[in-house]
Design brief:
The chain is of the alpha+beta class. It is built from 6 helices and 21 strands. The strands form 6 sheets. It has a 5-stranded mixed sheet with strand order 2-3-9-4-5, covered by helices on one side. A 5-stranded mixed sheet has the order 12-13-19-14-15, covered by helices on one side. The protein has a 4-stranded mixed sheet with strand order 18-11-20-21, with no helix packed on it.
């Protein structure tokens, strides 16, 4: 995992935008060293939107990016899948403003990546290693990063709902643990909110096939994939939003009731507090090498299968 990685070949899928309800064609393409993760709207020409916090746009129940007049929405599940299996460089092409929701989890994107295969590149990966705590809070919502020797997430949620008072989970995030324990966790909503969302032009592509819907007495659709699927999905969202710092993180992320707005605000705060982290390379011999941010070349800030 010390070499930068991209896909071995391009791969495509077709899905529906969760909020727009539009059909979306999405293609993942291999990319060179230090390209980063970039989105390209094929319906708007050759304009890329890098997946960095510098291009953060709307946060409306999902994470959106924009550059000039080009925008892309609902990027977090795909980003979580890419960074968790170590894909550093990839071009994401889509012909609509929204990444398809698929089944509401990151598992279909993991399948796409596995179908494409992974290729190592001739450059070392760079990690953002936390050396001092960073924290932010807004009322009863809070999020922090603490020094650790690996990437770990502790997340807790609490809702005023009889079936979802409180859930908490801690996971060390590796490729294996993400694929098995996080990626299958689906997005969720409450039945009482569905009509309000649609009246506001949201969740137009939402259905019982791509989200867990909670009524007052239970889950309306399929059985849960995990007893604590709700908090696992929040971990998934946090991983995807944290990807916007532009480097894989080494640290312990601790969040309570945070959500996309606080996740992404926190990603910006991390980059602002450069005294609290170092860029780290992992040489082939496994011994960690560290450097100040200025000493390493920065990644450019501009970062169902189809037949």
């Amino acid at each position: 995992m010390d070499a930068q990685r991209t896909l071995r070949r391009q791969v495509s899928c077709v899905g529906i935008g969760l909020h727009s309800g539009n059909k979306v064609n999405l293609t993942l393409k291999p990319a060179p060293v230090d390209f980063g993760i970039r989105f390209r709207r094929t319906d708007l020409g050759e304009h890329d939107v890098p997946a960095t916090v510098h291009h953060l746009a709307s946060i409306n129940l999902a994470t959106g990016l924009a550059r000039n007049e080009v925008s892309v929405e609902t990027v977090e599940h795909l980003l979580a899948a890419l960074v968790s299996v170590g894909i550093d460089n990839v071009l994401v092409e889509l012909n609509s403003p929204e990444v398809p929701i698929m089944d509401g989890s990151a598992a279909p994107f993991i399948y796409l990546i596995q179908e494409a295969g992974v290729k190592q590149l001739q450059a070392r990966r760079r990690f953002l290693k936390i050396v001092r705590p960073i924290a932010i809070s807004r009322g009863d919502k809070r999020i922090a990063l603490y020094p650790s020797d690996h990437f770990k997430v502790t997340y807790s949620i609490s809702y005023d709902h009889p079936l979802l008072r409180h859930q908490s989970r801690t996971l060390r995030i590796t490729e294996e643990s993400f694929v098995e324990d996080v990626a299958p966790a689906r997005t969720f909503t409450f039945l009482k909110d569905v009509e309000m969302l649609r009246q506001n032009g949201l969740a137009l592509g939402g259905s019982l096939e791509n989200a867990i819907v909670l009524g007052e007495t239970g889950v309306l659709n399929n059985a849960l994939r995990f007893d604590d699927e709700f908090v696992r999905h929040k971990i998934l969202d946090a991983i995807g939003d944290l990807a916007l710092v532009g480097y894989p993180v080494i640290g312990h992320l601790v969040a309570h009731r945070a959500g996309h707005a606080l996740h992404t605000e926190f990603a910006a705060k991390i980059l602002d507090e450069a005294h609290a982290w170092r860029l780290v390379e992992a040489p082939a011999d496994g011994a960690a090498a560290t450097a100040d941010a200025a000493a390493l070349p920065a990644r450019p800030s501009t970062p169902r299968l189809a037949n």
